[in-house]
Amino acid sequence: MTYICIMYEKKLPVDLQCGLHLFMEVMSGKWKIALIWCIHLGIKRPGELHRRIPKASRRILDTQLKQLTTLGIIDKTVFEQLPLKVEYELTALGETLIPVIETTAQWGEKHRAILEPFFLNPAVK
Amino acid sequence: MTYICIMYEKKLPVDLQCGLHLFMEVMSGKWKIALIWCIHLGIKRPGELHRRIPKASRRILDTQLKQLTTLGIIDKTVFEQLPLKVEYELTALGETLIPVIETTAQWGEKHRAILEPFFLNPAVK
DNA sequence: TCAAGTACGGCTAAATTTAGCCATATCAGA
DNA sequence: TCTGATATGGCTAAATTTAGCCGTACTTGA
C-alpha cells in the first residue's frame, strides 16, 4: 500500500552518516520531547496531552504525534467506540529512548546556568 | 558591551523547562554535530572544516560556528598574522558534550536499520 | 598582474517547520 | 436544541533555518 506520509517531503537530502543525526531527526520538532515524556509518564490521551502542553496548538501536537507514530516511537490505539477514544503509548523502541533522553537532560540541567541566558536573551550579552 | 547576536531573534518564546530542551537548542542546526565532531577530531581551521563538510555552504558553516562560539561550546582563536589564520577548539563545556553525543550516537546506530528507511524514503511505506 | 589561497560579511530566496483558522462527526447532559 | 466533550482534517500564513550569490581584504606564487 502506498500513501502520502505526513512527513514533509524534503527537497534537500538529509545526512545520516552518524547515529546522532538519526537521534536528532527523531527528536527534532518543537514538542516531541514533551510528548514523549508525557506519554512516558502515563498521559496517554490526545486531549489530556493537549491540556498538559497548552502552549502548543492542537494541530501541531497531532502532527508530531503522527510523526512519532510513523517512526515507531509510539503506538496509537483507537478504541472503536463512540465517542471515540484514543490512547498513545511508547513502543519498545520508544522505551529505549528514555535513558538516552535522561542522559542529555542531565547534561542540560548541569549546564543550565551557563546556557539559559543565551536563549532567554539572545540579542544582548 | 552590547552587540547584535547572530542568533535569529525569535518572535515566539522558547521552552526550556527540561534539560533536554537545552541540549536540543544547542545541537539543533543542520551542521553543528558535524562541526563539533570534526573539531573534536582535531580539524581546527575553517577552510579545512569546509573541505571536510563540502555539502554545506561556507556561509552556513560560519553561521553555525559563530553560534557554537556564542554558546561557549567552542573557542575561536585568531592569530594576528597575515594572511589571517583562525583555529577553533572545544571549550571545557564543549568537551562535556562528547560523551553525551556518543550516547545518543550509539542509540542511533543501534536502531539505524529501523529508522533510516523512514528518512531516506519518507513518502512511501 | 593574474590566479588562488586565507578569512569574512551583506543580502535575498528557498526550504522547512510551526501556528492558527475553519470545518467535520458523534455523544452526553442541561 | 444548545453546549461542551471526544477526535480529526484542510488550508494558509507566519516564523525560522538554510542555501547561494556577490563583494571585501590580504598574502603568496606563477
Automatic annotation (TrEMBL), chains A, B:
InterPro entries to which the protein is assigned, alphabetical: HTH_HxlR, WH-like_DNA-bd_sf, WH_DNA-bd_sf
Molecular function terms, GO-annotated: DNA binding
Superkingdom, natural source: Bacteria
Keyword tags: DNA-binding, Transcription, Transcription regulation
Domain HTH hxlR-type: 18-116
Keyword hit for Endoplasmic reticulum: no
Matches recorded under PANTHER family: TRANSCRIPTIONAL REGULATOR, TRANSCRIPTIONAL REGULATOR, MARR FAMILY
Name this polypeptide is given: HxlR family transcriptional regulator
